[in-house]
Write a structure and sequence with these properties.
Distance between the termini: 21 Å
Largest sheet: 4 strands, antiparallel
Helix content: 40-55%
Structural class: mainly alpha
Mean pLDDT: 78
Strand order of the largest sheet: 1-2-3-4
């Protein structure tokens, strides 16, 4: 992978242009109850003690995704451009959208892929999206995927609210698009375009090991989602529905959304997540 590493060295000179963005801060909410204080002059005259609030810095996962020993510089993704002598050279981050689109479109013939890739700043959006997924959050405005065409449906059995199993079909199209992507090719794309991703993560203040940790943690968020085959009971707070089972309601927003896609769709997404994780951690196929 000498040529790819030379490209990495060239690309890393670009990384110094990135400015550090502020890290995601885990904030706490302070609650103070003040009820019916006794009418005692001595008690009320005691000066209020200053409370020092400590906000813990975010814990950023770290890991190392190994490089392939015989990196082909995306040869499988370059089948349509084999005659291009510059095929192994990466563009700069600001001009990388066409580069990304061309290679992702080689992996799937689903028309929805074109819609998903119609946004600009794809590498930066991907970095932000993965950062959110690693924390269990879906940043839909950063990288909007296909929205379900039908409305969310429930049914009542007396005072009990149930999630309609028909809701699961609303996500079939999106899941089918993700399932159509070859995860080995996606892992190869990751290694090939790694300098671009490192540049985008560096702009957010992350080091390469943290980028790897964020990606693997995002995959684990999917893999650790429970498969719920039985009917799901809901409660309603104002206009929002919640899971009646607190073990489900306490899941991360990403995992709760996966549960809403249904057991079969969740399993398909987990199969893709596992295939990608294995391809990333074992790029040479030794296991």
């Amino acid at each position: 992978m000498t040529e790819g590493r030379n490209t990495t060295n060239k690309s890393k000179s670009i990384l110094t242009l990135g400015t550090l963005a502020s890290l995601i801060i885990v904030g706490g909410v302070l609650y103070q109850a003040q009820k019916d204080l006794p009418n005692d002059s001595e008690l009320l005259s005691i000066p209020e003690q200053a409370v020092e609030v400590f906000i813990a810095p975010p814990i950023v996962p770290e890991a190392t995704i190994p490089e392939a020993l015989n990196e082909s510089d995306g040869a499988n993704l370059e089948s349509s451009t084999q005659s291009d002598p510059l095929k192994s050279l990466l563009p700069e981050l600001d001009t990388s959208d066409d580069f990304v689109r061309e290679r992702i479109l080689l992996m799937s013939n689903k028309p929805e892929i074109n819609i998903w890739l119609s946004a600009d700043d794809l590498i930066r959006r991907t970095a932000s999206y993965l950062d959110g997924l690693s924390r269990g959050v879906i940043l839909g405005k950063i990288f909007p995927l296909s929205s379900p065409k039908s409305s969310f449906a429930t049914h009542n059995d007396g005072d009990v609210i149930w999630l309609n199993a028909g809701n699961y079909d609303r996500y079939n199209t999106t899941v089918a698009v993700i399932a159509s992507l070859d995860m080995k090719s996606m892992a190869q794309m990751f290694h090939f375009a790694r300098p671009l991703l490192e540049s985008a993560f560096l702009e957010m203040g992350y080091k390469p090991r943290q980028m790897d940790g964020i990606l693997l943690t995002a995959l684990d968020q999917v893999l650790n989602t429970p498969i719920i085959a039985e009917p799901i009971r809901l409660t309603r707070d104002s206009v929002a529905y919640k899971y009646a089972d607190m073990s489900l309601e306490s899941l991360t927003p990403l995992q709760k959304q996966l549960v809403r896609t249904g057991p079969e769709n969740t399993q398909r997404l987990q199969q893709q997540a596992l295939a990608l994780k294995n391809a990333l951690l074992d790029p040479n196929g030794t296991n």
